[in-house]
Amino acid sequence: MKGRRERPRTGAKPRGDDGLYFLPLGGSGEIGMNLNLYRHAGKWLMIDLGIAFGDDRTPGVDVVMPDPQFIVDRRKDLVGLVLTHAHEDHLGAVPYLWSRLKCPIYATAFAAAVLKRKLAEMDRDGEIPIKEVALGARFQVGPFDLELVTLTHSIPEPNAVVVRTAAGTVLHTGDWKIDPHPLIGEVTDEAALKALGEQGIDAMVCDSTNALVEGRSRSEGELRESLVEVVGRYSQRVALACFASNIARLETAAYVAEKTGRHAALVGRSLWRMLDAARACGYLRGETFLGEEEAAYLP
Description:
Blueprint: E1 21-26, E2 35-40, E3 43-49, E4 52-53, E5 63-64, H1 69-72, E6 78-82, H2 88-91, H3 94-97, E7 105-107, H4 109-121, E8 130-132, E9 138-141, E10 144-150, E11 159-165, E12 168-172, H5 190-199, E13 203-205, H6 220-231, H7 247-259, H8 269-280, H9 292-295
Parallel strand pairs: 3-6, 6-7, 7-8, 12-13
Antiparallel strand pairs: 1-2, 2-3, 4-5, 9-10, 10-11, 11-12
Helix pairs in contact: 4-8, 6-7
């Protein structure tokens, strides 16, 4: 067809024992509980191992995890687990299910820091082998040639994973958001994505949360001055709700407090865990936060 550019061929083999197969055990067609498997040359690679939170369909249940029995039965062929980022729906099940898998874990610095702190809270520090890899790294795990592509999201260091094999190439996006001003962390590596498109891939396994909602999400950078204006209207305390993992929002809270002559206080164990991990990785430095006991004595 005129004007249609041929997609570069990768030499994919669609069938046979040496093919490349994708099997989701959680997170496809639902929010949370991500557990994704790829198979090639008789070996399995896992990407993410997360939880979901209970709702009115699961009364009395706070946390739901995927059933890993399929891959537990094939544990000897599981070569590794790659974590795309540190959200609970992508790594939250690791402390509970890893003992049934016993495979190496690969993560960038922030996800590794968050996971280590979760394990330490459970008195399991050092129990699980976590191999830290750099942003944009390319590394081999069994028969899988893996490359990380830096994205943006509501947490530092979200990564897409390029899965290359002799049978074909898949882009596994993880969670993403195109944000030119994320405040914390790197911007999306558009050059790497364009290069990958030119090279050609055989499939993309992509996050589709809110894909059917029109419009776009606002940049984290657009929010800051709006919050300064809103908080500045009030003379008493202001409560700001956010996900604990939204490090940019924590930095914004400290910024807004300073601009409006206030103190920023954190309430909740998860917030302090994330703050500690962010400081350890250099994403937050000079920001000061009070604990809830200290804040109780302020007007």
